[in-house]
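Kindly go through the following sequence and its backbone structure tokens. Advise at your convenience whether the structure tokens fit the sequence:

___
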Amino acid sequence: MKATLREEFLNLPNMLTIGRVAAIPVVMLLIWNGDPENCIYASWLYALATATDFLDGWLARRRGLVTVMGKFLDPLADKLLVMAMLVVLVSLHRVPGWLAVVVLAREMTITGLRSIASAEGLVIAAEQDGKIKTAFQMFAIMCLLIHYPAPIRVLWIWEVWVDWNEVGYWVLLLSLFFSIKSAGFYFRQFFSAVDKKRRPGSA
């Protein structure tokens, strides 16, 4: 017997996904206050929220709880989290507006492309550059949330001061390189799959 949408919504993986969305306003409120301590709390909460992205998928596959609701909520939560963080970081002058626009335009374009592919019965698998982009993007946003220069210990011996906003900016630029590279891959895969489907004799 198939679960109802309500039951799907309330399963553990989907509740973790909802928790990721619920963390967004809390993170925004913490960094809006602007003091260093709250910015660190915001960064840790953001890190915890992004960790649920891996955990909910793993639980869904392990427990056989992959659902229609989960397939909708998981990518939506990911995009909302990134979009919200970039918007507030731009408003706080921690990220240039053009960079946020390019990142968000890429995300929306690829999401739309994959939706069209799915409607056409085509599957475009994720590839390595996209995963690298996500990892760099997550780390960059964490650094940008911290924002303020702070010391870190190297091998518990040397203390090095790090400008976290500067680190976040350059890592976000690096993630943009992989974003554009992986976007090219998705477009090539999409057009190749469409051409293959339309060839005479194809299923």
Observations:
- The CA atoms of residues 9 and 69 lie 6 Å apart.
